[in-house]
Amino acid sequence: MAIPVREISIGELKAVHSGKVRDTYALGDDLLMIASDRLSAFDVILPDGIPNKGRVLTQTSVYWFKETQDLIPNHLISSSVDDLPAALGPHVEVLRDRFVIVKKADRIDVECVVRGYLSGSAWSEYRDSGTVCGQPLPAGLVESDKLPKPIFTPATKAEEGHDENISVDEMKRLVSADVADQAIEASLALYAFAAEAVAAKGLILADTKFEFGYIDGELTLIDEALTPDSSRYWDATTYEPGRAQDSFDKQFVRDWLIESGWDRNPPAPPLPQEVIDGTAARYLEAYERITGKVLDE
């Protein structure tokens, strides 16, 4: 098993932003986004990384950017080491498979979430009130049920702390009705395309979130796309409504943290090796089943 890459220092470039997983650097008029193996849960970065996680996230995004480019433009310029500046030569092997060079965009500060199944926070709200983000749903649904049709449920994008679900009306007040309508249409189209594509591979895309921005006045898909971090994938062969499903994401870690009794305040406890290995295996399996490719060591 590879050693997790938690911190990647590129001193030759100006750091623009450091997130829970990705670090972004200025690259002339463009940006260099690098995915580490850091893992966050309950909005806390964990002390242990997950081997190859950053590579899985980057290469899964690259796959979907190429697959969906006829649906909506995206910000990807290149993911080839041949396009890195010569000054980054010493870092090539660390960066390989972990980076994308992207165009700068004027980001829409709303998470664009599409749900096709009743799970996570949506199930909790429905169980309490019969709604999801204030949208009424039919009575009698159970956990993990397929919804009558996919629904768009936006959320505020928080730099720190928890994202919060908001209504579509609130989104329109935040970003304008025209921008919201464009983002909703694009989100639903992308979800429908991806859900159909992975269904042919024995997977269910339960829900996913997108980020958009504007480049030269055109709505553009940015950040990551349909990765195991931004999406909830289930195995169709074991899918059974009425209970929580096994996911190809960090739910395995969340479950262990809950059972450990951690109070969700930093610092988080160290992860047992079997939890690290099990999570790494889930990310790799997701990548391989989605893309049909093997991630080379």
Question: What does the model show?
Answer:
The chain has helices at 53-67, 92-95, 120-129, 168-175, 177-199, 251-260, 273-291; strands at 15-18, 22-27, 30-35, 40-41, 44-45, 76-78, 99-103, 106-107, 110-117, 131-132, 135-136, 146-152, 155-156, 203-215, 218-222, 231-235. With 297 residues, the protein is α+β, with helices and mostly antiparallel strands. Strands 8, 9, 12, 13, 14, 15 and 16 form a 7-stranded antiparallel beta sheet that branches. A 5-stranded antiparallel beta sheet has the order 1-2-3-7-6. It is 30% helix and 25% strand. The chain has 2 domains: 1-104, Phosphorylase Kinase, domain 1, CATH 3.30.200.20; 107-251, D-amino Acid Aminotransferase, Chain A, domain 1. It contains 7 helices and 16 strands. The mean pLDDT is 94.
Name the CATH superfamily assignment of the largest domain: ATP-grasp fold, B domain
CA-atom Rg in angstroms: 19 Å
The assigned CATH architecture of the largest domain is 2-Layer Sandwich
What is the CATH topology classification name of the largest domain? D-amino Acid Aminotransferase, Chain A, domain 1
Characteristics:
single chain; 297 residues; alpha+beta; Phosphorylase Kinase, domain 1; D-amino Acid Aminotransferase, Chain A, domain 1; 2 domains; 7-stranded antiparallel beta sheet; 5-stranded antiparallel beta sheet; 7 helices; 16 strands; globular
